[in-house]
Structure formats: C-alpha cells, structure tokens
Amino acid sequence: MKSFNPPIRTLMGPGPSDVHHRILSAMARPTIGHLDPAFVSMMNETKEGLKAIFQTENELTMPVSAPGSAGMETCFTNLVEPGDKVVVCINGVFGMRMKENITRFGGEAIVVEDEWGSAVSTDKVEQALKDNKDAKILAFVHAETSTGARSDAQSLCKIAHDNGCITIVDAVTSLAGCELRVDEWEIDAIYSGTQKCLSAMPGISPVSFNERALNKLKNRKTPVTSWFLDLNLVMGYWGDDAQRTYHHTAPVNTLYGLHEALVMILEEGLENSWARHQKNHELLRDGLEAMGISFLVDKENRLPQLNSVFIPKGVDDVQVRSTLLNDYNLEIGAGLGAYAGKVWRIGLMGHACRKENIALCLSALKDTLK
Amino acid sequence: MKSFNPPIRTLMGPGPSDVHHRILSAMARPTIGHLDPAFVSMMNETKEGLKAIFQTENELTMPVSAPGSAGMETCFTNLVEPGDKVVVCINGVFGMRMKENITRFGGEAIVVEDEWGSAVSTDKVEQALKDNKDAKILAFVHAETSTGARSDAQSLCKIAHDNGCITIVDAVTSLAGCELRVDEWEIDAIYSGTQKCLSAMPGISPVSFNERALNKLKNRKTPVTSWFLDLNLVMGYWGDDAQRTYHHTAPVNTLYGLHEALVMILEEGLENSWARHQKNHELLRDGLEAMGISFLVDKENRLPQLNSVFIPKGVDDVQVRSTLLNDYNLEIGAGLGAYAGKVWRIGLMGHACRKENIALCLSALKDTLK
Fold this sequence. Notes:
Chain A is an alpha/beta fold. Chain A has 12 helices and 13 strands. Chain A has 2 domains: 10-16 and 269-369, Aspartate Aminotransferase, domain 1; 21-265, Aspartate Aminotransferase, domain 2. In chain A, helix 9 (252-268) packs across helix 10 and helix 11 (317-328) packs across helix 12. The first copy, chain A, is globular.
C-alpha cells in the first residue's frame, strides 16, 4: 500500500465538482480541537456565511457533519413522526429517496408523480393537498440532480402553507448555482451539499430550519429516531454560543474547506454566482445544440448547473465517457435510474463552471463523437 | 468574512489528535469523482488497510462517511430490531450513548453498570446474560474515551457467545493505539473513528461486521430505520467490486487522508504503533507522578493513549487549560460527565504520541501549576 496520488481530472459530472486550490489548501491547514475557541469563532462565521447563501435569517442554519443524504435524513428524522401524512413529489431519483425516508421514519407518503425531466406540477400538488387535508408536510426537490429539472419552490411553498403544511426542500444541486431564497420563498426546512455549486469537497450537508419547522420538532410526541442527527442534541454544539456542548467530533478540516468556499462565493457575490452559472450554461447549450445534441429538460425548467442531454443515436455511452475520462481527464455524468444509458449529465457547478471547461468539453466531445 | 488560518496547536486531548503533514497534504490532493476507477482502486486499498489494522478478514470492513457517533449508529440501526433485548455496559459517557441508541431503535436495554474509571465487570455481564436468556446482543466500549479505562474485550465476547449473543464493540479510541484483534477475539460488529490513534482528520468512522453480525442483519423482519446508514444499501457502493452502485457521494478528500494514515501505520507496523503508545504512556506517567499527579484508572485497566489524571487540589481547571492553550498552544482535555472539573484527559494518540510532546506537556504543566 502506497500513498495515493489521484489523476488530475476536470469534474463536469453531477458532483463532486472541481474544488478550487484555495479550498484544497484550506483543508490542509493544521487540525485544531472542535472545542477550541478559534474553531468556535470559525463555526460562527460559517453559520453566517451559510445564512447569506441560503438567503435566510434562520438561527438554525448549520452544516451537518455528513454528506447530502444525511442532510436529507436530518430533515425527515426530525420532522416526520410516525403516522404523519407527507405529500412527496417524485420527478426523479431524489424524490424517490425522500419517499424512502418518510416511510422508514413511520410516515405515510402520499406520492405526486411527474415525468422525469419535468418540473413538479403545482396543480397536482394542490389537488393532493386538497385530497389529504390531514397532511402535515410537503416534500419536494428544488433541483433534481438526476434530470436537471428545476421546480417552482416559491409556488409550491405557498400552496403548502395555504393548506396547513410545512415544507422540506432538497436544494443539494441548486444552492449557489441558481436563484434560491429561503426566507422570501418561505421554505421551512432545507438541505444541500457542499460538493456541487459550493465547489467544496464532498462530505458536508448545510441545512436550515425556520421557526415553523422548529415548532414541529418541539411538539413531537416521540423522540427523534437518530441520535447522531437529532437536532435537539446537535444544536447544543452548533446553536447557542455560550454552550458548545460536545455532541460529536466535528469534521474540522472539511469545515475549513467549507468556510473557504463561503468566503469565495461572498467575494464573487451570490447573485453574480447565479448569473455566471446561467451565462456559462447558455454557452454550453449553444455548443451542444450546434452539434445536434438536445436537452432532456424544457428550456423554462432547466437548471443551468446540470445539463442532461440525450446521447446521440448509435453512440456507445460507456465508451464515450471512458474516452473522455482516460484521454482527456474529463468526467461527465451517466444517466441515473430511468435515464441510465439514455442521457449524459454535464455539470457546470461552482469552480467547474468556467469558460475553459466548456471549451474543453465541447472540443473533446466533438473529437470523441467523430 | 476572511480566510481562516487556525493557530498551530499541539493536540493532546481526547481527540482530534495531531494530524501528520503527510496526511494533511494527502487531503489537499485534487478531488476526483466518487465513481472514478482511480478512486475505486483507492477504496479497495483502504478496505484492505482497515482490515489489517482491525486484524480481521471481514469482507464488510469499510469507512462510514461520518464521524464515530455515526459509526456507533451504523451498528445499532442495522443490528437492533424493535423488541430486541440488548445488554449494554455503562462505565462512562459512551456506554450511555450506546444505551440511547438501543432505545431509539426500539430495543430494550438491560444495563450493567460499573464505576466510571473501572473496566466493565465480566462477572456482572455474565450474570446479566444468565438473567436475560433472551438477550440477543452484548454492547460495550473497549476503550472508554471519557475515562481512559480499557475493558477485556476478548473475555466479554466469549461470555456473549457462550450465552447466544452477538457483540457490538466501541473501539473509537483503541484502534491502532493498543492491542485489538477483531477476528481472534471474535468481535462481531465494531466501530472506530479516524481522529484518535489513526491521526487522520475527524469525520470518518471505520466499521467491521463479521458473518454472525451480517446474519442478524439479513434476518431482520423490519427495514433498517436509517436510509443513510443502511448497510444493505451502503454495501452496494463499498461492497462488491463489480457493482459500485451510487448510494451517497463519498467524502473523497477525507478518504485520501484516511488512506495516507493507513499507509503510515502499516509502514510503522501495527504492533510497533501499539508499543510506541505504551512506551510513551509510561514516560508521561512517570513525569506526572513525579509531580504528584495521580491517575483515575488502575494500572491494569489503563489505556496508554488516554491518560485521565486527577486535577490537583486547589487548582483552577479552566484557568490551567486556558493557559496551556493560550501560552503554549497545547490542548489537553477536560473531564466529561461525572468527572467534569475533576480530571484532565491527556491524549497520546497517533502522531501526537511523541517524546517531544510529552516533554512539552510536562514542562508546560509544571510551569503553569507553579
């Protein structure tokens, strides 16, 4: 067993995205204790940075010490009680995963289905909530990483509240890559990941809960099933400054990386980051369409940071991706679930969302498809 | 918000321990995809390295993508079914946490209590298992991080098997710091952490399950509650080489660090690492005892890597630890739970377990206590 030196790739898949050298360097700074006053002040800055990019004043805004799937589980294990009816929207893999979470925590999942590649239908959701007046939660994916479809989070939250529900929103792929306004849109509980448009290394899941979500948590009749993700306990460490009670050992170096990623996004400006993703998406789109390649998702529901395109007829999916990886050190993503073998997912996320990467991708793809 | 540059500390608390520069540098290598063939081959090496330091041939030996508490939860959520009787040994904080896990997953906890600072009593455990013939699991902490007491894992496992139970063992602080032989001692399910005697950065939890434990999992009548930690799903990614099915995004860079930590331990030799911890413990012990400082744990049950010592009478706990941190950049640990304010926990873990650190610690403590 020898030291591992990874190949140098360009990461244009569905995540992880390219991590900037500043962030890699930040991770390599010396480890300090998770209760060190210097670390605690970095934690406070991280919370403030996350509030800025979530566009929220929620006091409970923090990074969960595990990947996006654990962020999802944090929302469901804390908010779903046995017997709770939850309307869950499925238009791709991550809606299915939400449903799985609901049933495992004893909830009753009412499924609203849409075609993979479509946005969640607000009409169908409205109908489902009218048909299930005792539903307590609406859960949906803002940015479906499996297809690249964006749903109208603001309208869905309004419908939920009009029908007495709180909302759980998956923003793993949307955070920092396209418009997302937690407070203005009245999202109640939200989770994301660090390895997409934040361009930090994978392993951390930022979450944010508002008062409505916290009330649901406070009024639980049964304990939260997970000890590790129980926010009543986690908040003893991430919550009140005076406390900082030991709960688990925070992933110190990974959090250095997240902190640096937040510094970089705030330097660029959040709205500038959104605009950069949109502008570069259009550049990539024009290039792909000029090659005769078409998109899975309609223009109006398309995420700029995740471009699902149909694999041209007669082209060998695996062979093309292997050639891109082996000859060009370029990673693009395979299709997932229903679209395995049918689409490629080309990510333009965070630091990977640069003109030089688009030039590389278009040129390498053109050569490979010849 | 500006880039965070941590102070340079010497970490002699209960973890995280000092991380070697080789490991910090490894973490800063460029991120690649979690399904990249180069990454998959590193995953295989990591599994082999973990098997070597756990001293096991268990096929299911892998790093959970979250801190030690999630490793604990992985064991309990997969192995405890609602209604299962579990005998759990409490001689410190982490036994209490085990009990919490058992009840949250619907198990019935039968508690065997010992004084904090003592080893788990094999006699009491034997009696508890005889009194509870329908018990299915014995859970105990090999190395109690809250006190520095080591329990006799081999004898406890034998008693468990003689009484038809499988075992869940907490080895967060013991792995690589003192003798631990998973196969020879017939430990069925075990979890550890990366931030103790592996001296890798916090955030990952190595686990290992043998066939007996896997059988318990396979014969469950109810689904595992956690989706994120469900080994039936996680094994699709970490298990069979041919598969590598996406489950969650692995913490790529943190795993680079773990891989490098394993390379370093295997270079040193596992038994040499155990011996180094013991030798340096004796050096520290002699120095502390010469200052009139005494140990919480009896000599025969004392962990070399975690030295709990009584705070001398009339000494201000917080002030001494602050002086050590602020004037000497030296972190030692506070007491936990029953021993808060009464003991210090001085770690000699992994890369922190060096003669120069002992010299610094003894000298700084002598000056501060003057």
